[in-house]
Structure formats: structure tokens, C-alpha cells
């Protein structure tokens, strides 16, 4: 078994596309900026994040037609230099809600939200610093 992606169901596809592509700097697979589906990948690793228009999935499962309430997901991305990355994405329009700050003695984190309110955690693994 292989994890292909984590898929987020969104209502404002274009805003989320810009957030994951233009602000966070993930690479879109096809360039489908208007949706209804796109997969994004980081520069390294095999994991991916996909966006799917919520109304498209509602055609398959009626129960997802309603807007989500509360936090239903947490996207976690590892970065090498957390402070520099947070400065970079802030200049591109992101709002960091918390951090960068220590989470444990082995990790520093920062938190932000995408345009749909999904939580994004940026992690810097201190053990990998050599």
C-alpha cells in the first residue's frame, strides 16, 4: 500500500490553489488553477496534497455538500529553515498565526490557515541540523 495524497475538499478552489502553489511554493501537477482538482508536491519527498472542489465530491457523497465546520484537518509540511520560510511566505501573503516557536526539544513549528480555514503546520526538525 502507498499513500498517494491527502485531499482537501474546498469551496474556493482558486484561492486555495494560489495559497498552496504561490504562497507555500508547492508545485502543481497540471496547472488546473480553476479546478476542480489539482495535486501539489513539495520539491522533495513523495507525499502530496490535493485540492478537490467540494461540490464535485458532493455529487458522489451527498453528506459532504454542507460546508465543513471546525478544524477537520492539519496539513504538516517540513521545512529546513523555519524562520526564513515564514518570512518568505509572509511576504507572499500568508498570515502566520503562531510561531515560529519550539514545540518539543526536537522540533520548532509555526501555524497558519489556508483560505478555507484548514490548519497548516510548518515543522523544522532540529535533529536534522547536524
UniProtKB/TrEMBL annotation:
Record has Metal-binding as a keyword: yes
Domain VOC: 2-125
Keywords carried by this UniProt record: Metal-binding
Superkingdom: Bacteria
One Pfam assignment: Glyoxalase
InterPro entries: Glyas_Bleomycin-R_OHBP_Dase (IPR029068), Glyas_Fos-R_dOase_dom (IPR004360), MMCE/EMCE_epimerase (IPR051785), VOC_core (IPR037523)
Record's protein name: VOC family protein
Native source organism of the sequence: Streptomyces olindensis
Lineage, opening ranks: Bacteria, Bacillati, Actinomycetota, Actinomycetes, Kitasatosporales
